[in-house]
Specification:
188 residues
């Protein structure tokens, strides 16, 4: 697809994880200093603060990096704000991507951004309930597509058992042409 400068945008890297520990282990590899990060399904903000620290290097003003934590429950967000007052938390729905961009604009209206970015996130973390069960695959794929096209991240990390299963069974044709041709001739 095409970006606003009429150049071809690369699709984001998609990382499927299982469990909180694996989800958090991706942070040093996926988030760079100065990144704009969004976590949807932030709950009490434990992963969000780690994402924020990785993106900001502890200094949001000079690095321009930050993380915004979003969840659907106002009491959950109130708790996160009390636990981590240095991070921007807001009530929001992962499926309402235009609202997520508005939340970013709200954040940027009150914080200096030395990078001068306009909209969109570099990295999006997704920890939304219901995306791990057997029936969650289509919902997860739909949500990933919506996030990819509306927020244009470089990377999306999703905590989802069904996405992890799918990713472990996919084979790239271009990188595995020889292996695929042997499968065709073996019949296995």
């Amino acid at each position: 697809w095409i970006d606003g400068n009429f150049g071809v945008c690369k699709p984001p890297h998609l990382v499927a994880t299982v469990g909180v520990e694996e989800y958090r282990q991706t942070i040093p590899n996926a988030v760079q200093l100065g990144d704009a990060v969004l976590e949807v399904g932030c709950h009490l903000g434990t992963s969000t603060i780690t994402l924020h620290e990785q993106a900001s290097g502890g200094d949001t003003e000079s690095s321009g990096g930050y993380c915004i934590g979003v969840d659907v429950g106002s009491s959950i967000i109130d708790g996160a704000k009390k636990r981590y007052p240095s991070v921007f938390f807001a009530v929001g729905d992962a499926w309402r991507t235009a609202d997520l961009l508005r939340l970013q604009q709200e954040y940027l209206s009150t914080h200096k951004d030395p990078v001068g970015r306009s909209t969109g996130f570099d990295v999006v973390y997704v920890d939304v309930g219901g995306l791990s069960g057997n029936d969650g695959l289509l919902e997860a794929l739909s949500l990933l597509s919506a996030i990819e096209h509306a927020l244009e991240p470089r990377c999306i990390v999703i905590k989802s058992m069904c996405m992890r299963r799918l990713s472990s069974s996919l084979v790239s044709f271009w990188q595995n042409q020889k292996r695929l041709s042997s499968i065709a001739t073996d019949g296995s």
